[in-house]
Amino acid sequence: MKKIQLYVVVAIATLIAAVSFDTRAQSGQSSSAGSSNGAGASAPVSGRKADRALRREVYAAIGKHKEIDAGNISVRAKGGAVTLTGTVTDTAQISSVAEIAKGVPGVTSVTNKLTVSKPLGGM
Asked: How far is Cα 33 from Cα 15, in angstroms, rounded to an integer?
């Protein structure tokens, strides 16, 4: 019985979230055509798109270097500032990845938090 109640609560919460999201999207469309407040509301969306695009470009630049295993590297971008986290296989790759990221157009700064991964067995 408790499982059914949980499902009902989750379903209701999902429905409320969907309806409120739809309402905000519709009000944002009408206000952007009629007032300047709507234009300000859409600015963060384009900023997020730019951040995602920059993040993809940094990943692509790192991926061109086959000697670097980018599978354990995470890239975050916000307003041109890039943060690298994760692990690489040797110390030299830490600075190499940072230099690659700095060379991507649109990157204004790089914070490098990469570390060297230890091989299995800890040696």
From this structure: 28
